[in-house]
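Our collaborator T.R. sent over the components below with a one-line note: 'Predict the complex.' Nothing else. No constraints on interfaces, no templates requested, no preferences about which chain binds where. So this is a plain run: every listed entity goes in together, and whatever single assembly comes back becomes the starting point for the next discussion.
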Amino acid sequence: MIELERLCRTVRGDIVTMVHRAGSGHPGGSLSAVELMVGLYFGGQLSVDPQNPEWEGRDRFILSKGHVAPVLYSILARKGFFPVEELWTLRQLGSPLQGHPHWKCVPGLDCSSGSLGQGLSIANGLAIGFRKQNMDNRVYCLLGDGELQEGQVWEAVMTAAQHKLDNLCAMVDYNHVQLDGTVEEIKALGDLCAKWHDFGWNVIELDGHDIGAVIRAYEMARAFRGKPTVLIANTVKGKGVSFMENNCDWHGAAPNAQQLEAALEEINREEKAQ
Amino acid sequence: MNKMIPMRDGYGKALLELCQSGEKIMVLDADVAKSTRTVWIRDQYPEKFMDMGISEQDMVGTAAGLALSGITPFVSTYCVFLAGRAWDQIRTTVCYNNLNVKLAGAHAGISVGPDGATHQSLEDVAIMRVLPNMTVIVPCDAEETRKATLAIAKRQGPCFIRFGREAVPVITDEDTPFEIGKARLCCDGRDVTVLANGALVREAIEAAKVLEQEGISVRVLDFHTIKPLDQEAVIRAARETGCIVTAEEHQMYGGMGGAVAECLAAHCPVPMEQVAIQDSFGESGQPQELMDKYRLNQSAIQEKIKAVLARKG
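Returned assembly:
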């Protein structure tokens, strides 16, 4: 577990460094999703093979909130899909690391994304397709909380329940902050757990920054039969960098050199403390 | 007299053939399965059918996921809700990923009739053909719709096919060739070429017969594929006949006429006239009343032929 916590800090360092070097990007929602992603890729949950990215038996991950590409790129690089040095080319002309992920460019990516609200439908299609072909691959989909304002998400929520897709697990990064402000002041989501439950899902609420809880939740989701599972992960936007935390200004802004230094110092300070 | 059959029957028939031959397909519909004829799949191959309910955007996204899992999805609903409502899903999820998703827009054009303008898809070809990786096909009758459906099943990548609601004369048969991207010569002529698609192919052929008696020699091409555009056929027609008329059940801007105009302007500018909706919405009415009122018939094609011949000089 300590190893995974250390990896979370590495990924956080990657995120702020990538966005700083790119001069643009989305650190806030990347930082809030770190434990969900590390738990999935490094906690024995998502079955993938970096040596064979196209392996048919692999599980699939769909990043519905495509703007948090930095956290996914960092995870894929740290997993060994491509060299870590490539991370520093984010958003540059000719780089495979597009501002929002394009699957044709990056080994380990399962689909492009960037237009919000679409990922869960794609994940459903994969889950239905695997079932139709008697394949036991699992499908995971990460959604933002602001993204849940898109109507298509709720169409997809109904589809997954209708087809009882227990080979599917959705994760909501519930960090309460979107681009213009808080989710509550812009378009509140109400009782999110009750909503998903009423739509026919198995709901697991958890602390999205407790890596142990994240892995336990994935395991419970895997064991659950007859319904799709959603993890409602309570998180902090910008987690790990205090001046970014809970601040919508860091939804889509790049730290300057000084801010990067402060961010890395804080991220690494936590490591020293441990 | 030609048999009168709706083009959607050709779509349903082709889907049945694909199911019969064991193709790895899934047929999706958005609560209009009886209209699109996918109900035939629902009844005979239920394991290959999904009714997604009234949620077109989710349907297209689900189809994308099915394609990623190795299954070829056929996405079927009314054209106006497929191309229009789910455009961003088609653009960003299907086309950007270059996924093997087949999109079938039924009840296209003004001839859907009494339902009125909300249901009359007159912009779909324009908004589909601008998308990279997309193939766009507008067949002329039920048999060609069947062949086009089988052809897009074989073709890798996103494909869009649109067809009308009404029974229209079947003017091709099993042996009539169909190849994506290749215009089909219906009748040859020297003075002018009509590039027509959909139900207007038959109208163009009839117009050509009438004008033949007046000494005007009209070439008619079944211009079923808008993308990839058969540039060679367009340029040859321009060079050999010196003027062009396009005829389609679609807006005059951005559709097949627009695509042909782009090609002519770039390669062989000649006078061109369009039979198309003149930048307006439709309205309720009987299909033939609407086709006549909005000048989508053989007499309109004759007029435009004469107009373009006058410009050709």
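Summary for T.R.: The mean pLDDT of chain B is 97.
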